[in-house]
Amino acid sequence: MKSEDIPFIPPYLNKDGWLCYLKVEKNGETSPIRLCNFIPYIAAQRIVDDGAGTKVQLEIGAFDAQGKPMEPMTVPGEKFYTLDWLNEKWGFEYYLEVGNGLKEHVRHFLQTTAHRAEKTTIYAVTGWKQIGSCWQFLMPGDEKNTVKLEGRCNNYEFNRNDSLENVIATMALPYAVAPKEIMFPLVAFAFLSPLNSFLRKAQYEPKTVLMLCGKTGSKKSTLAALVCSFFGKFSTTELPLSFRDTANSIIRQSFALKDVLTVIDDYHPSTGRDASQMNTSAQAIFRAYGNRTGRGRLNANSELMTDRYPQGNAIITAEFPPDVGESGTARFIMLEIGTEDVNNEELTHYQQLAANGVLSSCMYQYTEWIKEKLLCEKTEDAFAKYLADFCKECRKELTEKGKQNQITLRDRLLDDMVSLHVGFSFFCDFLLDKNCIMPEAKPAMLEEFDAVIFTVAAKQQSQTEQEQPTHKFIRKLNALLESGCVSIGNRNLRPEYPIIEPNNLIGYEDDDYYYLNKSLSHKAVKRLCDEQGEGFAIPERGLLKALENEGFLICDEDGKHTRNVKIGTKVRHLMVISKAKFNEVLADER
After folding, report:
1. What is the DSSP letter of 261?
2. Beta 209-213 vs 313-318: how paired, if at all?
3. Can you spell out the DSSP letters for 463-523?
4. Is 304 exposed, middle or buried (0-12, 13-18, 19+ CB in 10 A)?
5. 255: which of 167, 230, 308, 534 fits an S-S bond (Cβ 3.0–4.6 Å)?
């Protein structure tokens, strides 16, 4: 805007480059009263939609007393009325005159210029949004809709080239770069992500994260960056999120990264303090993605604020799994990557494709395919119902395949496998509709995919079981016995022999059972876990209940967790654990 284009509605005027207003005197004459030594105006009004609500931002421009344009500044709508922002960017040589009501006059004049201001909507969130009657997949770089993300997330952007060659160049990625046990889940997770909004409505939103776990040099971050490049241009030095960020920051940004894949990089604690902080962050992240709910909070007016929870999917890179207990372990799927697993030649090839925007072009065409083939033909509710029915059918099929392979998956892990199957199935449908594969290829690809994810699921279930408090208790107790840190006496002593009890005695045994002092054994295991930097937070009573529920503990006739056991000439109150069940846990983990 030029200075001469600024509208001056009476009583306001520009006098010698100063904003003034005409004061009417008692005699009816007018005199100009100076308000400020510059001419301000509202250059633009922006509605910022962050997915939880909208806020107004104003761009304030000005001309100084010599008529030169001053650098515009952005002012949040809620701060506009105070005018305290005037000197934040322009400096203290620009000022308001002294007098009652002068600030109100400047504020009022600014608002009289608003009708000429450019009005736009800025989206601070990605993913699906119905704008008018049309569905749009919001991403930075869109010519129709302005999308701006914070921090390192500004690398998200689609290559909006709809060349079929880009799809063809991408379609072999699940079979390239690394073993299928790694690549199949990664690619499936990427193509699952644009379905998240509708899966949430269908009550089948994915509730897990993928964890790429491997030593330094295994190229886990490089591989994560490659897969994330379906949604932009990323490298190991430009990943969206990191464990160096706070948990609250990660979860807040994961709310904005709706219907896309992100990477939370570098779980790699180097000190005890690092481990504590990162484990706390990991626990918060796993719960946020695993529950898909936010923390209820109140604003300054004691009004309930909109929940912010992850709306996309995430890959975590780590050198080893975080110590987050059984519930945390159940909320991620671990993909172990070795130092020799990545094919460097294939990796270089696909990195070049990613740098050229080929991968993001493929994902752009995939979202357009969803819009044209599914959202244009169905209402949102109809599409959600279609997804719900599809997920139910997948669950039945995978359950049956599990029985055929003598694998019984826990409900949560089965749901995770359903999510991955849905993502890969939609990827295959997309390729089929684009004539990139033959109709008979899809069933073969899905059969191969299911075989792979069942292998992954079996490993994951074993990992989760190891984190169960009961299994951890048995493993740690066995380690203590083998190392001689604690000891167990022989129950079958003849009564006439004296019982010599060492200081580290925690119980007794016979051929079939361990007879343990519940407090001493619980304390010994907890002490060992603390020394090793591992968590063992379950209290004694909770451990006894868990041992009973899982069939390890033999209760007495009244349901009590301890029994009266005769040791020599004395009767003691001890918990009785089956040796057969005890040894099953150890055998499963060898």
Report:
1. E
2. parallel
3. HHHHTSHHHHHHHHHHHHHHHTSSEEEES---TTSPP---TTEEEEE-SSEEEE-HHHHHH
4. exposed
5. 308
Query: How buried is 530 (Cβ within 10 angstroms: 0-12 exposed, 13-18 middle, 19+ buried)?
Result: exposed
Q: How many CB atoms are closer than 10 A to CB 151? A: 11
Tokens of 588: 């499963």
Asked whether 461 and 409 are in contact (CB, 8 A), the reply is yes
pTM of the shown model: 0.79
| C-alpha span between 181 and 215 (Å, rounded) | 17
* Beta-carbon-side half-sphere exposure of residue 86 (alpha carbons within 13 Å): 21
Q: How far apart are CA 145 and CA 256, in angstroms?
A: 16
d(CA 290, CA 301): 31
Pairwise CA distance, residues 567 & 491, whole Å: 6
Note whether 187 and 223 are within 8 A (CB): no
CA distances from 243 to 218, 219, 266, 267, 269 (A): 19, 17, 6, 6, 9
Coil, helix or strand at residue 590: coil
Number of H helices, E strands in the chain: 18, 21
Amino acid at 192: L
Question: Do residues 45 and 94 make contact, with C-beta atoms less than 8 angstroms apart?
Answer: no
Q: Which phi and psi (to 5°) does residue 321 adopt?
A: -65, 140
> What residues pair up with 262 in beta bridges, in sequence order?
314
Q: What is the 3-state secondary structure (H, E, C) of 446-469?
A: HHHHHHHHHHHHHHHHHHHHHCCH
Within 8 A by CB and 6+ apart from 225, the residues are 234, 235, 236, 238, 239, 263
Strand partners, 54: 49
3 state DSSP class of 243: coil
The half-sphere exposure of 22 on its side-chain side, counting CA atoms within 13 A, is: 11
Q: What CA–CA distances, in Å, run from 579 to 29, 478, 508, 545, 585?
A: 105, 11, 12, 18, 10
| pLDDT tens across the length of the chain (590 residues) | 788 889 999 999 999 999 999 999 888 889 999 999 999 999 999 999 998 889 999 999 999 999 999 999 999 999 999 898 988 889 999 999 998 889 999 999 999 999 999 999 999 999 999 988 889 999 998 888 999 998 889 899 999 999 999 999 999 999 999 999 999 999 999 999 999 999 999 999 999 999 999 988 999 999 999 999 999 999 998 999 999 899 999 999 999 999 999 999 999 887 767 777 888 898 899 999 999 876 655 555 555 556 789 999 999 999 888 877 666 677 889 999 999 999 999 999 999 999 999 999 999 999 999 999 888 877 889 999 999 999 999 999 999 988 887 777 888 889 999 999 999 999 999 999 999 999 999 999 999 999 999 989 888 877 666 667 888 889 889 999 999 899 998 887 655 544 556 788 999 999 999 999 999 999 998 888 878 767 676 788 888 888 888 889 998 888 888 999 888 778 889 999 999 999 988 886 55
**Beta-carbon contacts of residue 318 (< 8 Å; ≥ 6 apart):** 211, 212, 213, 220, 266, 267, 268
DSSP conformation letters of 340-407 = T-S-HHHHHHHHHHHHTTHHHHHHHHHHHHHIIIIITTS-HHHHHHHHHHHHHHHHHHHHHHHHHTT-
